[in-house]
Amino acid sequence: MTVPEAMIEGRPAHEVLAWSRDLLDAAMRPAVDTLPSSMRHIAGYHFGWWDEKGQPVEADPGKALRPALVLLMAEAAHGAASMAAPAAGMAAPAAAAVELVHNFSLLHDDVIDRDETRRHRPTAWSVFGDTAAILAGDALLTLAFDVLARSGHPAAVQGAATLGAAVLDLTEGQHSDVCFEGRGDVGLAECLGMAEKKTGALLGCACALGGLFGGAGPEQVEHMRLFGDRMGLAFQIADDLLGIWGDPEVTGKPVFSDLRNRKKSLPVVAALTSGTDAGRELAEVYAEDRPLSGDDLVRTAALIESAGGLAWSRAQADDLLAQALGHLRSAGVTARAAAELSALARMATRRDH
Amino acid sequence: MTVPEAMIEGRPAHEVLAWSRDLLDAAMRPAVDTLPSSMRHIAGYHFGWWDEKGQPVEADPGKALRPALVLLMAEAAHGAASMAAPAAGMAAPAAAAVELVHNFSLLHDDVIDRDETRRHRPTAWSVFGDTAAILAGDALLTLAFDVLARSGHPAAVQGAATLGAAVLDLTEGQHSDVCFEGRGDVGLAECLGMAEKKTGALLGCACALGGLFGGAGPEQVEHMRLFGDRMGLAFQIADDLLGIWGDPEVTGKPVFSDLRNRKKSLPVVAALTSGTDAGRELAEVYAEDRPLSGDDLVRTAALIESAGGLAWSRAQADDLLAQALGHLRSAGVTARAAAELSALARMATRRDH
Fold first, then answer.
1. pTM score, two decimals?
2. CA Rg value for chain A
3. Chain A residues whose beta carbon lies within 8 Å of the beta carbon of residue B161
4. pLDDT by residue (tens digit) across A254-313?
C-alpha cells in the first residue's frame, strides 16, 4: 500500500538531533580516544566532556547539526523509510569527520578571533594557551581524515576529497572574514561569498558526504550539497542575527558580542551598504577606534535595524531556505527524509523564534 | 649476469635530491594551484616561490629530504634498478603529501615559537600575520590528504591512515617541546621521546608511504618506517647541534638561535642531566629570566660542550644511524636503493661535516 506523501510525517527536529547525537557519540568517542594524550585532553575539554583537569562534566555539547545532516542524507539516499535504516550507521564515520572538522575550525577561529567564551565555557586557548589550542585543532582536522580513511567505506576516498574541498573553502572564508574587519568598503556580495565559504561549504559537504555514504549518484549528491550550502548560508544569517540580538543565555556569548569587536557580519554589511542615514551613521561608529559602551551597543544595534539590516537578513534567510528546499525536492529523497530535513533546516535557520 | 653487491653504486645524495625535487615540484605546483587564492599566496611565499606581493623569486626551497625518502623507498620497494623506474612517478603524490605536512607544521611551529626567520627569509606569520599563517597551515594539511585521496593509487586509503598517525605524533611532539621549555626537570628519555614524535614520526611515515606506494608488504613497510624513524631522530640531533653551533650562513637562522630562547634541545638536556659541574652551571643559566648576551651565549655553548652534550649527541646520532641502516638491510631493498638511501641518511644526519 502506498502512503500519500502529505500523510507522511517525519520525526520532529529535536528527536532527529537526539538520534543523531547517539550515533555520532558512538563514532566520536573511540576516535578521540586514539588521539595522543595531550591532544585528547584538550579535545575532550573543548567537546564539553571533561573539565580542564580531565574530570567528567555535563556541559552543552552543541546541537551537532552537521552530523545530523550527514546521517539524514545517508538515510535519504538509501531510500530507507524504516526506523532501523542501516545507512545511517554506515555513515557514522562521515558524520564524525564533519563534526571533527567543525570543531577544528572552532578551536582555530577562537584563537584567531580571541573569543573567550564558547558554549557557555571558557574557550580552549583561554584555558590551555594558544599553542595547545592550535595543535589540538590540527589534531582534530587530522583525525577527521583518519576516521574517513579507516571507515572501510567504498566512498571513503571520494569523501576525503569532498571534505578537503570544504576545509579549503573554510580557510578562505575565515581569512576573508578577518580581512573584512580591517576594511571600510566591504560589499554585500563579497560578504555573502565569504559566508558561503565559511559556513555554507561545510554544511553542503555534510549533505554531500551523507549522500555519498548512502550510495547516491552524482546528480543527487550535487542537489544534496546545494541544499546544505543554501541552508548553511541561511544558518549563518540566523547566527549573525543572534550575534547582535541573541539572548546570552541561549547563545552562550555576551550580549551584542559581534558588535563589540565591530564584526562585519551580514546584517551589518547590509545596513552599511543600505544608502540610508542610519547606515551612514553606523559607518561612522564602525570607523571609530574607541571601545563601545553598553549604550553605544544598544544604539548601534538600533542603527542596524533602522538601516534595514534586520529586515534584509530575515528576507534573505527565507529566500535561501526556499532555495534549499527546492534542491531537496530535486534530490528526490523519500517523503519522510524530506520532512525531517525540512524540519531541521527550519529549526537551524530560525532557532531564536 | 648478477652484479656483485659491493660493485653497485647509487647516485650521490645531491643528485638524488635534484631528481626528487623535479618529481616533487611536478606534483606540488598543480596541487598548490588548487588552493583558494588567499591560501595559495601565503603558501607560495612560504615555499620560496614568490615574494610577499606574489612576484616570482629564487629563494632556497629547502632540501626536501622527506619527499626524496618517499620516492627512493617507492623505487626500492618496486625493486626497480633502472633509472626510469615508474614507481617513483606513481609515488609523487605521496611525496607531495609528506612535504605538505612538513610545511604545515613549519607554518604553525613558527607561529607557536615566534620564530622570525625560516630559510633565510622572514617567516609567513611575520609577513602576513598569525591568522594568515595558521589558516595557510590548515590549508596545506588539508591539501596533503586531498592529494593522497585524488592520487587514485590503491594504497591511498592506507596511506592517509599512515600520514594521519604521523601528524598526530607531530602535534604531540610539538606540544611536549613547548611544555618542556617551562619545566626544569626534563629527562633525557622523555626528550628523546618528544624528538621521535616531532621529527622521527614524519620521516618514518615518508619511508612507509614510499613503501606502500611502491607495493611493499607489511613487514617490509615496517622496516622502512623504522629506518626513517631512527634516521629522523639522528637528523633531529644533528639539527639540534646546528641550532647551537650551526653557521647562520648555512642554517638561515641567527647564531646560537636555540640558546637565545633557552630551548631544551637534546644536546642541552644531555648536558643538564650529565651530573657534571658544567651541567649544574648550565642549569643555573637556564633557570634565569634575563636575556642572554653574546658573551653569555658563547659561555652557554661552552658549558654544553664541557658537560658532554656535544659528544653524547654525536655518539647518539652515530648509534641511531647504525640502527637505521640495520632496518634498511632488513627491509631487503635493492643494493642500489640501499646505497642511495644510506648516502641520503649520512648527508642528512651529518650535514655540517
1. 0.93
2. 20
3. 146, 149-150
4. 789 889 888 899 999 999 999 999 999 999 999 998 999 999 999 999 999 999 999 999
Nearest CB among B35, B168, B179 relative to A142 is that of B168
User: Measured between CA atoms, how close is A276 to chain B, in angstroms?
Assistant: 33
Residues belonging to chain A with any Cβ–Cβ distance to chain B shorter than 8 Å: 34-39, 104, 108, 111-112, 130-132, 134-139, 141-143, 145-146, 148-150, 156-158, 160-161, 164-165, 167-169, 171-172, 174-176, 178-179, 197
Closest CA to B303 of B351, B262, B247: B262
First CA to last CA distance, chain B: 38
The residues that bridge with A50 in the sheet, in sequence order, are A56
Q: Which amino acid is at A257?
A: S
Per-residue model confidence (pLDDT) at position B85: 52
pLDDT confidence bin for A83, thresholds 50/70/90: very low
**B172–A37 C-beta distance less than 8 A:** yes
Taking only the tens place, the pLDDT of each residue in B2-25 is 445 455 688 999 999 999 999 999
Kindly state the DSSP code that residue B56 receives in the 8-state scheme.
B
The residue of chain B with its CA nearest to that of A177 is B131
Nearest to A157 among B36, B131, B156 (CB): B156
Q: How many CB atoms sit inside 10 A of residue A6's CB?
A: 7
Report the distance separating Cα A101 and Cα A137, nearest Å. Answer: 9
For residues B285 and B258, the answer to whether their CB atoms sit within 8 Å is no
Round the CA-based radius of gyration of chain B to a whole number and report it: 20
B131 and A137 within 8 Å at the Cβ level: the answer is no
Task: Please name the residues in contact with B67: beta carbons below 8 A apart, sequence gap of 6 or more.
Answer: B20, B21, B23, B24, B95, B96, B98, B99, B206
Q: How far apart are CA B298 and CA B293, in angstroms?
A: 9
Written in H, E and C, the secondary structure of A32-60 is: HHCCCHHHHHHHHHHCCCECCCCCECCCC
Give me the helices (H) in chain B, please: 13-33, 37-46, 65-78, 86-90, 92-113, 124-128, 130-150, 156-181, 188-195, 201-214, 218-245, 248-251, 257-260, 266-272, 277-287, 294-306, 309-331, 335-349
Query: What is the distance in angstroms between the Cα of B321 and the nearest Cα belonging to chain A?
Result: 27
**Encoded amino acid at B174, one letter:** Q
Contact B138 A172 (CB under 8 A): no
Nearest CA among B74, B120, B122 for reference residue B97? B74
Residue found by looking up cell 617551562 in the block: B182
Would the pLDDT of A68 be above 90?
yes
Determine the pLDDT at residue A353. 42
A223-242 pLDDT tens trace: 999 999 999 999 999 999 99
As a whole number of angstroms, the distance between CA A21 and CA A62 comes to 10
B interface with A, Cβ–Cβ < 8 A, is 34-39, 104, 108, 111-112, 130-132, 134-139, 141-143, 145-146, 148-150, 156-158, 160-161, 164-165, 167-169, 171-172, 174-176, 178-179, 197
Counting one residue from chain A and one from chain B, the pairs whose CB atoms sit within 8 A come to 134
Cα B126 to its chain centre, rounded Å, is 22
| Element spanning B164, H or E | helix B156-181
Cβ–Cβ below 8 Å for B171 and A36: yes
Q: Rounded CA gap, A126 and B111, in Å?
A: 17
